[in-house]
Design goal:
13% strand, five-stranded mixed beta sheet, Heat Shock Protein 90, alpha+beta
Length: 268
Amino acid sequence: MHDNILFLLALGTTGMLLLAISIVLLQVRNQNRMLKQRELTQLAEIAHQKQLLNAVIQSQEAERKRIGRDLHDDIGAALSGLRLSIDVFEPTKADGSQHFKFKSNCKTAIDSIIAEVRHISHNLSPSMLSLHGLVAALNRQLEFINRTDHLQAVIDNTVPELIDSLTIEVTTAIYRVLEELINNTIKHAKATNININFNAVGNTLRIHYSDNGIGLPITSNIKAKGMGLQNIESRLSMIEASYHILDQQTSGFHLEIEYPLNRVLSHV
């Protein structure tokens, strides 16, 4: 009788223990399932946000191209026509010196406006980017800078074939990022030199941008300091590239962009 009671107690204890273990395993399984579902939901949200950001950037580029074409075709043509009208205009009463001065001043002003319109049109929609590639488009942009006595820019491309293999989406993103960096240098850095270097290290395409200006202090919240760096981060994230600002002991600003070469080679 006593043995039967002990057996029943042991059997009951074992059953309760197995039940408790089953409940714990079921809870762990449910938690793992919930965590996996939450992770999948987060990944889906991130992918959706990237799609939205990509749509916004593509829309911006399309609008840039439209405005650029309108500036070049409509306003540029109108200014050229105005210049021609002034050039052929003759006063009813001859006043040689004043008339020549008037025509010369008008043509100089119109030529300056035409050049500026072309420059703006090129910045909005750089046709050389799709026709001749990233480096050619950048060189065209830097021509305007190098004409001044205040700032000189140099490009060092050690991987020309690799750069030429980039898709138009990637080259556009990199071009806009470098354009943002150049504009920041012009506006804020008080620099006299800009250097842009393209090279490959291992499986990574690296683009090193530097100037010899006043530099930018490295702080924990540096990315929150302005829209410029936020725009850079957004455009690079769309091509799954990254950037980091180098902490240099020397003066100037140094930023390095890294783009995985396997993404480049997949499009070759």
